[in-house]
Specification:
The complex is a heterodimer of chains A (about 220) and B (about 220). With about 220 residues, chain A is mainly alpha-helical. Chain A has eight helices and no strands. Chain B has a single domain (about 5-210), classed as Orthogonal Bundle (MetI-like fold). Classes of the chains: A mainly alpha (about 220), B mainly alpha (about 220).
Chain lengths: ~220, ~220
């Protein structure tokens, strides 16, 4: 049954896995934030082919499991001459997967900027790039910050999938600890509690963001 | 490429069975917890919200590993299939409960007043007045959750169930390591087709449920 001494003993080891989990979370989110914006901008392109391609990528990435995407990157990319560490592959996979969700959130934010803003920028003779950088995005991003925060939490909760491609994050660390001590109860429970606490804390944080920026419908 | 399809698709049955089984569990859990959240009985509400917090607050894969590898230490042993269906179902249900609660909350207050005036009991009000109006609004988010559930079903390959992902990664890739790009591309396409099928079915269902309504529910 439950052994407290053992549970305390393994915490430092799990903490090392936790560091990798956090690296994957923030690394993945940074990639997702950039890629997602690219998809959202491509979708609004006046060139039909560009917007169709972006729409297709988003739909495909959203409709297929993250686990399978990770396997594809991990097992198939080396065949194309791309060799990366497991962690890099995992961060890339998380980033790509979540970029599809973030693209939708960005889109909601951009759609929320009123038409008059575009017309004002046009009448001030702003270039397209200036319109985006100086007028549209500064107004589109703040309202979607809470929704982005929710996605960050969702991404964080999916990092254990990286264990399947041998990244030593917190879940795989727990498994190793379990393998050496022949008990999985304490390691896996500790990981569960760890995610629960982290989620509760980050939910409070997102709630605060909602208060500051107002909530937006595109949080689903 | 054609020689690989039969082996890959032999895993489709498990993927579909896990997804459908978990969907049933999720539906029951969604309505159970979603309706309980509106109960007048505080302990019941506390129980429902702890369930939601627990399953939404932790990772699906951690839940699955916990149920399959840690629960046996309490003497509770489950088949991989049972663990997969139960955990994925309860996980999705925790998100579905919020959908049910939100859709019910969106039904205008006056509908309750009208039912009270007509002498309906609480149960009758819910069953004959509120739920029929709330249901259409639940379909699109339920559709999204169904696709998420299909995607999450790939996790059962990690607890030894021979689903599509298992067939690709543990059977085909071991046999033909040089053909990895092809194998995983086929696997991605299989999930994409299944997901499109779910989305299509949900849109049909939405049209059917909205039929003959002039307001309420859908936008």
């Amino acid at each position: 049954m439950w052994d407290w001494t053992f549970a305390w003993e393994i915490l430092p080891k799990l903490a090392r896995g936790f560091v990798v989990t956090m690296q994957a979370t923030f690394g993945g989110f940074a990639i997702a934030a950039v890629l997602g914006l690219i998809w959202a901008l491509m979708r609004r392109s006046r060139v039909r082919a560009v917007s169709t391609v972006a729409g297709g990528i988003v739909e495909f990435v959203r409709s297929t499991p993250l686990l399978v995407q990770l396997f594809f990157l991990y097992y198939a990319l080396p065949d194309f001459g791309l060799r990366m560490s497991a962690l890099t592959t995992g961060v890339l996979g998380l980033g790509l997967h979540y970029s599809a969700y973030l693209a939708e959130i960005y889109r909601a934010g951009i759609d929320g900027v009123s038409k008059g803003q575009w017309e004002a920028a046009f009448s001030l003779n702003f270039s397209r790039a200036q319109t985006w950088m100086l007028v549209i995005l500064p107004q589109a991003i703040p309202p979607i910050i809470p929704a982005l925060g929710n996605r960050l939490i969702a991404l964080f909760k999916e990092t254990p999938l990286l264990a399947a491609i041998t990244v030593m994050e917190v879940l795989l660390t727990a498994r190793e600890v379990g393998d050496t001590h022949f008990s999985y109860l304490e390691p896996y429970t500790a990981v569960g509690v760890f995610f629960l606490i982290a989620s509760i804390v980050s939910n409070v944080f997102v709630r605060a963001l909602e208060k500051r920026y107002g909530s937006v419908a595109a949080s689903a | 490429m054609f020689d690989l399809w039969p082996t890959l698709l032999s895993g489709a049955g498990i993927t579909v069975a896990v997804t459908l089984g978990a969907a049933v569990v999720a539906l029951v859990a969604s309505f159970g917890a979603g309706l309980t959240m509106r109960s007048h009985f505080a302990p019941a509400r506390a129980l429902a919200s702890s369930y939601i917090a627990l399953f939404r607050g932790t990772s699906a894969l951690v839940q699955l590993f916990w149920a399959y590898f840690a629960l046996p230490f309490f003497g509770i042993r489950m088949e991989a299939m049972t663990a997969g269906i139960l955990v994925l179902g309860l996980n999705t249900g925790a998100y579905g409960a919020e959908v049910v609660r939100g859709a019910i909350q969106a039904v205008p207050r006056q509908q309750y007043d009208a039912a009270t005036v007509l002498g309906f009991t609480r149960r009758q009000t819910m069953r004959h007045v509120i739920l029929p109006q709330a249901a259409p609004a639940m379909i699109p988010p339920f559709g999204n959750l169904a696709v998420e559930l299909l995607k999450n079903s790939a996790l059962v390959s990690l607890i030894t169930l021979a689903d599509l992902t298992f067939q690709a990664k543990d059977v085909l890739r071991t046999q033909y390591p040089a053909r990895s790009p092809e194998i995983f591309a086929m696997l991605l396409i299989s999930y994409f087709v299944l997901a499109q099928g779910i989305s299509f079915g949900m849109r049909r269902l939405e049209v059917r449920l909205a039929h003959g309504r002039d307001h309420g529910g859908v936008h």
